[in-house]
Write a structure and sequence with these properties.
Elements (H helix, E strand, L loop, with lengths): L2 H19 L2 H25 L2 H20 L3 H28 L2 H19 L10 H5 L1
C-alpha cells in the first residue's frame, strides 16, 4: 500500500469518526463544509479543463444539497425552512447550469450562497444548537 493510500484511508477514518461522534448541528456543519470544498474543487477543475472530475464534484455537491434540503423541518422551521429550501433549489439550478456550460461564475455564486449559510450556521451560539427532546422524538 502506498503512502497516498494510507493517507486517504486515514482521512476517511477521521471523517467517519467525526460523523459518528457529531451531534445534528455538527453534521449539518460538516455537510456545508463538504459542499463548499467540492464547489472549490469543481471550479478548479473547470479552470484546468478536468471536466470528468468537475462533473463528479458537482454531483457530490448536488447530493449534499439534496440531503440538506430533505432534512429541513418545515413545520418547526416555518418561513426560514421555506426560504432555505428555495435557496437550495436555486443552487441546484445553478449547479446544473455550471455543469452543462462549464460556468465557473455559477460555481462561485453557489459557493458564495452556501458560504453565507455555513457562516450563519456556525455562528449559532452553542446553547441554541441542541434540539429539544420533544422535537428529536418526532
Amino acid at each position: 500500500m502506498s503512502l497516498q493510500s494510507y493517507a486517504a484511508q486515514y482521512r476517511n477514518t477521521g471523517l467517519s469518526s467525526a460523523v459518528m461522534e457529531a451531534d445534528p448541528h455538527r453534521l449539518v456543519a460538516l455537510l456545508l463544509a463538504g459542499a463548499c470544498e467540492r464547489l472549490r474543487l469543481a471550479e478548479a477543475c473547470v479552470v484546468r479543463g478536468d471536466l470528468a472530475r468537475k462533473g463528479k464534484a458537482i454531483g457530490e455537491v448536488s447530493a449534499i444539497i439534496g440531503h440538506l434540503n430533505g432534512s429541513l423541518d418545515h413545520e418547526a422551521g416555518g418561513e426560514i425552512a421555506g426560504s432555505l429550501s428555495a435557496l437550495y433549489d436555486y443552487v441546484q439550478t445553478r449547479l446544473i447550469e455550471a455543469n452543462l456550460h462549464n460556468d465557473a461564475s455559477a460555481l462561485r455564486e453557489s459557493l458564495d450562497l452556501l458560504g453565507e449559510i455555513e457562516s450563519a450556521w456556525n455562528a449559532i451560539p452553542p446553547e441554541q444548537r441542541h434540539v429539544p427532546a420533544m422535537a428529536a422524538a418526532r
